[in-house]
Amino acid sequence: MTVYYSLTFMLLAAEMITFCILVAPLPFKVRRKVFRFLSESPIVAKVAYALKISFIFVVILFVDALQRMFRVTAESDLARSGQQGLNDVRTETNLAARKFYSQRNTYLTGFTLFLSLVLTRTFYIILDLIHTQEEYAKLKKESKAGAQNGDATNKEIAELKKKLAAEEAKGRDFETLKKQAAQQAAEFDRLATKYNEATGNVSNKRSD
């Protein structure tokens, strides 16, 4: 295997390891820290930029490997049909090895590109899921705080109703006392009038 295909294989292995880490059942806090680091770290951004450039070369290698695979397959078919060269064991072995290497290189580069797309999509899906979970947790806390505030407001309303009922009871008692005082004052005036009349009558009789 040549150097660039060896590097492509290493890139494929790194993608497989990264994919296993992304889909691993990690706790939410750990997953959030990992994805926040991957999405906000400038070092990771530089590495991602370098990987984008490397994937351009992988695309070129994939196209070249695909062309070689088609060409070697066509040569192998011609050799088997007996239309080109002698059908000896050495030629057939050489064609089989070339066909195997071309197919291997095609699958290697193709799976590398395919897994890169899967990794990118999986990363953003999980990142959106984390943001959604954070928003859900925030809304849940706000709803709990609102419920607590609602309970406190209900308690305050109940206390105000009790105070209002007490004040209304005091008002009713005051009105009752006011009426009783008015009745007593009227009774006192009536009695005082009678007393004055009686006193005046007595003095008039004595003077006669």
TrEMBL record:
One GO biological process term:
intracellular protein transport
Domain (Bap31/Bap29 cytoplasmic coiled-coil) ranges: 155-203
Q: Has the keyword Endoplasmic reticulum been applied to this entry?
A: yes
Q: Does the keyword Signal apply?
A: no
TM helices/strands, residue ranges: 6-28, 49-70, 107-130
Q: Specify the protein's topology with respect to the membrane.
A: Multi-pass membrane protein
Stored InterPro entries: BAP29/BAP31 (IPR008417), BAP29/BAP31_N (IPR040463), Bap31/Bap29_C (IPR041672)
Q: Which domain of life is it from?
A: Eukaryota
- Principal location listed in the UniProt entry: endoplasmic reticulum
Q: Cite the Pfam families for this sequence.
A: Bap31, Bap31_Bap29_C
Tell me which residues make up the BAP29/BAP31 transmembrane domain: 1-138
Q: What is this protein called?
A: Endoplasmic reticulum transmembrane protein
Species: Sphagnurus paluster
